[in-house]
Design a protein that fits this description.
The longest helix has 13 residues, at 65-77. The protein is built from five helices and three strands, in the order αβαβααβα. It is mainly α. It has helices spanning 4-8, 38-47, 54-61, 65-77, 96-108; strands spanning 24-27, 52-53, 81-84. It is elongated. It starts with a helix and ends with a helix. It has a three-stranded antiparallel β-sheet.
């Protein structure tokens, strides 16, 4: 087991970027990766092929989401990672007559 302060550093300031576990991550290919710590390099390698959520990165690294969020926030603040909110479709109103037919069918059961 690796202690969290080993991964993120004991003197890291609070992250200025607010993330949750469903925040999507992608690598900014124009930013140089040199000088990053080992765990940061692993996050970059995971995100390089495409888009991953913070939860997926945590699962791949087998680390708590809270630790990965701090690590990712540092990479976002430095410009290495880009973030996006997941696309959630707008709720649509349901057809009332259809819902009444469904309810009638359930009652017949």
């Amino acid at each position: 087991m690796v202690r969290s302060h080993t991964v993120i550093g004991p003197d890291l300031p609070p992250p200025s970027v607010q993330l949750d576990l469903v925040t999507l991550l992608s690598v900014d290919p124009t930013v140089e990766r040199s000088g990053l710590r080992a765990q940061a390099q692993r996050v970059m390698a995971l995100c390089a092929p495409g888009v991953l959520s913070v939860a997926e990165v945590a699962a791949h690294l087998q680390m708590p989401g809270s630790v990965v969020r701090v690590l990712v926030a540092e990479l976002v603040a430095s410009g290495h990672l880009l973030i996006a909110d997941p696309v959630v479709p707008v709720a649509q109103l349901h057809d009332v007559p259809f819902l009444e037919k469904v309810l009638d069918g359930i009652r017949r059961i």
